[in-house]
Amino acid sequence: MILRLLLPAAVVWAAASSAQAAPTGREFARACNDPAGRTACESILREEVAQHDAGLQAGKDELSYCAPREVDGPQLARVFLDWARDNDNQLDQPQLAVIRQALSESYPCGE
Prior knowledge:
There is one protein chain. The protein is an all-alpha fold. It has one domain: 10k-s Protein, Hypothetical Protein A, Chain A (Orthogonal Bundle). The chain contains 5 helices and no strands. The chain has helices at about 1-20, 25-35, 40-55, 75-85, 95-105. Helix 2 (about 25-35) crosses helix 5.
């Protein structure tokens, strides 16, 4: 009986949690600037580059930026933060869009 009452509440809570707005580029930049958030920032940036490369290899994605293979998390964070300082007007967009824009402008292909 109690389980039947708690289960709908858990479903509503989960739905409400997932309905929250996606983080913005501004929030991501704040995390990257915070020593406590730097590791997560670097991980997210490395994962984006890895996913982009995997998509290219699988023929599923288009080439949108050309980050060097040897670029590491701290370098990606510095590049992102430099871009963010110069593009404050774009930081209220969703985090992923901002990250991809920063990488495509920072690591253009064919140059």
